[in-house]
Amino acid sequence: MIKVGIIGLGAIGQRLIPLFLNHPEIKIVAxxxxxxxxxxxxxxxxxSVHTFTNHKEMLSDTxxxxxxxxxxxxxxxxxxxxxxxxxxxxxxxxxxxxxxxEALSLYHQAKEKGILHAMNFxxxxxxxxxxxxxxxxxxxxxxLRRIELKMHFPSWPRPWQQNxxxxxxxxxxxxxxxxxxxxxxxxxxxxxxxxxxxNIQYPEDPKASENGIIANLELxxxxxxxxxxxxxxxxxxxxxxxxxxxxGTLSLVNWADVExxxxxxxxxxxxxxDSLKDSLINNIVKSP
Length: 288
Fold this sequence. Notes:
Blueprint: E1 2-7, H1 11-21, E2 26-32, H2 36-43, E3 50-52, H3 55-61, E4 66-69, H4 76-85, E5 89-93, H5 100-113, E6 117-120, H6 127-137, E7 144-153, H7 174-190, E8 193-201, E9 212-219, E10 224-231, E11 238-245, E12 248-253, E13 257-262, E14 268-270, H8 280-285
Parallel strand pairs: 1-2, 1-4, 2-3, 4-5, 5-6, 7-10
Antiparallel strand pairs: 7-11, 8-9, 9-10, 11-12, 12-13, 13-14
Helix pairs in contact: 4-5
């Protein structure tokens, strides 16, 4: 049985709790949050769980095999470093760190301790994104001509994201919260890329995150990538990740839906292949 501790019980942290609870090889034995009311509400859902308001106490007083870290981004380096220092495997929400220097220090620390160190990128596991990747691999679009990522939000943060950091330039913004998931997919499916030019707009509040971005990037083979982001606009939320090729167009829409067509045909919905669906938790459990 894998004994899991969770540090941070906000909206994102709550999403994995049911997956942990429903896995036969995992037991949540400890949870930690600085907000006592939220800590107690979560404890009521988990049988015989130990509660802490200080993560260092949890790490010292509990026998753990894995710790899931889902605190605000600026605390990732400190908290993850404390977990690794105890020789405990760690799963962290993105971003891993707030600078290359922080990320490298965690990498070297984890390598020295010989522990599993992973980040949660859920697009690697859902049927929609895996169907998109599979179709690209099978040559659905032909030779790739362009990649586009559209991120349009009527408001940012969204209504369910009302916290102290997600709207700030320091830790939040939709490029960091949403865009990185698709940047990771571009790297995984198409390879490395580099930034050619970027134009970022900010509101008058100097602490607020971006409300507009146009960025031009390119793959190693010079294939162009366009990132188009806007918030505080009319309309509905739309996140659309599209590959244009010599033979067709393919999009992953709003995280899970796939649509596309061959050249000359109208765009239409493509059924996802549910057999491709995977699980972050299963991959953690079977990791050596």
